[in-house]
Amino acid sequence: MLQLEKIIIRKAVVNDLPQMLQIMDDGLGIPTIDDEMKQRVEDWSLKLNNCSQFIFYVAEVDHGSIVGWCRGGRVVKSHEVVAQEMYDYEIQNIFIGKQYQHRGIGYELWKVLWNDVLLFFQPKNFVVWSVATKQAHQFYSRLGGEPKETRTFDEDCVSMAFVWNDLKLYENTNFLIFK
């Protein structure tokens, strides 16, 4: 018999950071170095606690494990100009654990974060700098993002900018949400 897991989307808290960073490392294909985790949690807790700049959400299964997370807010300075146009807000991170991908969790996290950013910050437009993978590009295109520019930020990191200029709230979500 198939057992369904209840997935809850809620605002992230500092205690979620170790699991969030592990999911990010796994998604980027980089090893998590335990000796550095304490400093990384401290660095990221500054972002998490900066509600005037960023909004964080996590997707949590009913047994308490974080299976995905996202962050949105004011655009990072190096990301604000895309194809000679200024953008003021972005979703900087969205990561889903491999075993939970293709279940709609990323889409639901996106909708909740998108609505919160629109309501809280009231942006004129929106940008996402996506990793250069087919899966990520398909995801953002399905969400209505228009690919605008490819750029290399680091030596190895080629990113594609997806932009939104017609910003509308999503009507509902299919997951349990506790803000």
How would you describe this structure to a colleague?
The chain is α+β, with helices and mostly antiparallel strands and 179 residues long. It has one domain: Gcn5-related N-acetyltransferase (GNAT) (Aminopeptidase), CATH 3.40.630. The chain has four helices and ten strands, in the order βααβββββαβαβββ. The chain has an eight-stranded mixed sheet with strand order 8-9-7-6-3-2-1-10. It has a two-stranded antiparallel ribbon with strand order 4-5. The protein is globular and about 45 Å long.
Shape: globular
Q: Taking Cα atoms only, what radius of gyration do you get, to the nearest Å?
A: 16 Å
Major β-sheet profile: 8 strands, mixed
CATH class: Alpha Beta
Write down the secondary-structure element order: EHHEEEEEHEHEEE
Task: Count every beta strand, where a strand is a DSSP E run of 2 or more residues.
Answer: 10
Query: What level of helicity do the residues show?
Result: 25-40%
